[in-house]
Structure to design on (351 residues):
């Protein structure tokens, strides 16, 4: 029998960052690439929408009025999943029925006053403003004694459940560390204890040496399709310096983050020539007052699309009952993303 070839043979890959496994079936992706077939009309949005609850000066659902903001704007989510004053308590019946009261704060962050822009259409200084807002919010919310984790994220596109096309993200800050960052804490801590370096420092070294899965980089950041990617065009954005949270990024690293976010999301939009949907967010150290030297800040991008503007990956069947599975390899996806232009398709078509 021929020897194992990860571009041919089904195999499992280990996610060193969260401890999960994923099944890769490269032999099933031999079908021809069908990207860019159905191109929907380029969506035209006004710079200001009087009916949008996030535009400057507009009234939100609860009657609050947004200021005439000119860069970013943050407000407490009017329909937050968590709120601060929850009575302490819970349920425990034989260790089988367990519940714990959970408290927290939900916020909405507008990236721009412009209703018609998205991250890839904003310029680097404007995206840098978003990075600074993330840092300020992490600092402020994390310093609260009852907040032990600050989750910053963006749902982009109706496919991901975003309620409004106005560029915005959310923050859920809470008493406990949610499951995903908790799993990453376990993995990173075990690695750090053994090697005295962060897991992502050593992982990045392998990826940069190998180059196969690196999509783009700059002086301070690398964006790559992780070896263990679940979503077809999933990426991981990692700072070269092992910082634990976004507040530790210096000026140059913040500018460079804005640069890599812009270039990565332009490539995403150019993949199927649509405003590319995804859920994305930051993972960083819990704000429980511990140092967490094992933690290495990073961003995940989880986009659902697979082969065109409308063909998405479903997490059903085997994936619900077994574990995630993919056909096209992470290496194929990285190659595809690398082949794309960094001129946004809307600009290219306007020229
Ligand atoms: P999403 O698009 O990711 O759903 O985020 C929008 C959030 O905005 C959502 O959580 C909040 C919703 O609760 N919201 C307000 O706080 N005020 C409003 O007037 C409408 C929506
Ligand atoms: Zn708007």
């Amino acid at each position: 029998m021929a020897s194992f070839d990860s571009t041919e043979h089904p195999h499992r890959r280990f996610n060193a960052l969260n401890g999960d496994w994923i099944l890769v079936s490269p032999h099933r992706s031999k079908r021809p690439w069908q990207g860019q077939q159905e191109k929907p009309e380029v969506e035209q949005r006004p710079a200001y929408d009087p009916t949008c609850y996030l535009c400057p000066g507009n009234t939100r659902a609860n009657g609050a009025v947004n200021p005439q903001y000119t860069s970013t704007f943050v407000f407490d989510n009017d329909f937050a999943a968590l709120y601060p004053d929850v009575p302490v308590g819970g349920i425990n019946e034989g260790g089988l029925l367990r519940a714990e009261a959970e408290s927290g704060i939900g916020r909405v962050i507008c990236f721009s006053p412009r209703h018609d822009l998205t991250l890839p259409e904003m310029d680097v200084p404007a995206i840098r403003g978003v990075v600074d807002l993330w840092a300020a919010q992490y600092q402020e919310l994390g310093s609260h004694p009852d907040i032990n984790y600050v989750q910053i994220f963006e749902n982009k596109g109706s496919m991901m459940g975003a309620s409004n096309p106005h560029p915005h993200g959310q923050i859920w800050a809470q008493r406990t560390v949610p499951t995903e960052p908790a799993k990453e804490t376990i993995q990173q801590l075990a690695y750090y204890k053994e090697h005295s370096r962060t897991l992502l420092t050593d992982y990045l070294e392998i990826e940069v040496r190998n180059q196969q899965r690196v999509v783009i980089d700059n002086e301070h950041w690398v964006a790559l399709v992780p070896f263990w990617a679940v979503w077809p065009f999933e990426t991981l954005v990692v700072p070269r310096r092992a910082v634990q949270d976004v507040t530790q990024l210096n000026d140059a690293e913040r500018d460079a983050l804005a640069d890599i976010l812009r270039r990565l999301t332009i490539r995403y939009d150019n993949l199927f020539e649509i405003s590319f949907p995804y859920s994305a967010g930051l993972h960083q150290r819990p704000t429980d007052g511990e140092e967490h030297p094992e933690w290495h800040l990073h961003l995940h991008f989880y986009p659902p699309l697979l082969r065109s503007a409308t063909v998405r990956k479903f997490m059903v069947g085997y994936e619900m009952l077994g574990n995630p599975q993919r056909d096209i390899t992470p290496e194929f996806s990285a190659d595809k993303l690398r082949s794309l232009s960094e001129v946004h398709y809307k600009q290219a078509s306007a020229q």
